[in-house]
Amino acid sequence: MSWEASLAVGLPLALSSTAQVLPMLRSSGELNTPFGERAFSVLLFQDLSLIPLITIVAAMSRVPDPAAPGGWMMALTTVAAIVGLVLIGRFVINPLFRLIGRLSERELFVVAGLFCVIAASALMHALHLSVALGAFVAGVMLAESPYRHELESDVEPFRSILLGLFFMSVGMLLDLGVIAGRPLTVLGLAAGVILVKTALLYPLARLFGQSPGRAITLALLLSQAGEFGFVLFAQATTARLISAESASLFGAVVTVSMAATPFLMRLVDRLQERRPDAAPDMEGPEFSPETNAIVVGYGRFGQTVAQMLMAKRVPVTLIDLKPQQIELADQFGTKVYYGDGTRIDLLRTAGAASAEAILFCHDGGTLNRETLRPITEAFPQALVMVRVFDRRQMIALDGLDVPLMQREVFESAVVMGREALRSLGIAEREVVRVEREYRQRDGERLQMQSESGDLHSGSEKSFSAERSLPDEVGKVGS
Q1: Which string of b and e fits 297-329 if b means at least 16 CB within 10 Å?
Q2: Long-range contacts of range 449-452, CB-CB < 8 Å, 24 or more positions apart?
Q3: Which end of the chain has fewer CB atoms at under 10 Å, N or C?
Q4: Phi then psi dihedrals of residue 406, to 5 deg
Q5: Residue 430 Cα distances to 37, 215, 367, 418, angstroms
Q6: Which domains are assigned to the chain?
Q7: Where is this region: Disordered (predicted)?
Q8: What are the strands of the beta sheet with 316-320, ordered from one edge?
Q9: What is the pTM of this model?
């Protein structure tokens, strides 16, 4: 086997299976832990390396016809096609989604997303390149869109079906004749791939601070060959670097290694359970600023809240339903995602299951009990704080398990009233007393209104020309 063929085989086998590992991490509840984040970082880097790997395989292409374009020309075609798709995504897809956002038709998001994937795949097919590469680039473009959370939440009901369809297609790619004809070769190569990758990943995991138990778990979790191997083997066959029979053989190796991973992980779990010192292998909490917060509504109110969080490097996910607001924020370099932040599925997609705080900064007083109660029940670990439009909405939301409901103009109005008193010559001590008394009376009045449901309740608590606060100090100089 030539060095080009060896490279065309080794590169795919070095990749791990994102489609298999992520569901395993999600089902075990470790995806958002430091361990899961390390595994995800490796998988993400491998996925992003697919484009240069396909370009490398195309550059090594052996062209049977001397008049046909060489391998480097195929590589340049691949790069040009990818750059073209990225430019189309930036200047065509994003404006298209903004238009759909203005129309407020959720179904069109799914249709537009599928159209992008199919169009990108068709373009790659027309250029005699990998169809899977087109779909992958389309996915990357959609992931960079401000509308990604809306797309993810809309596709979420179909995720399990599509994932099952993917693994079914992987099984259909398996040539049982190859395994039946050379079973020891296939099993031996699959075992070799797992052992070699485990032997390389284990010391690297230890080098980056993983305990022995977690290091072997991470190494075995990433030891299988990945689904992109089928894409690269097909590309290598088209480039005449390996034969179709060799592609079938190594495809069988990929499938067997993927099938072995769940059993290997179960074996590791059982062995660690039997160890008397298994508990110290578990990672304790690490100090980090990742008290994740989700800010829903990035208008005047939400911008102030978000900037205060960012001042202390708190990772914040920003969501807004107004395309104009998203475009305006983008002009200032702020990433705001499109979506209805009151939808539980969209909040879950945005990371609400692990968020420490969910801050609703809507304007217009659109939130109600029926909207907020399911959110507080779905994400009990998160502190839910709400911007309230006026007293009526404050009364309507009374009784919810929400630690903070802030009327949007209350504090600014109190500040202006305080400064107005000072400018009129009222003594500082009296200004402080007026503010304290007003806050106390307003709270008591609000409580009475909530209990009775009548806005006129507690009117005797409010100040007027007939009901003023007696002077204790009076004006300065009086």
Answers
A1: bbbebbbebbeebeeeebbbbbbbbbbebbeeb
A2: 449/391, 449/395, 450/394, 450/395, 450/398, 450/399
A3: C
A4: -110, 120
A5: 55, 65, 38, 10
A6: 3-281 (1.20.1530.20), 293-461 (3.40.50.720)
A7: 439-478
A8: 337-338, 316-320, 293-296, 357-360, 383-388, 404-407
A9: 0.55
Which tokens hold the place of 392?
């009526």
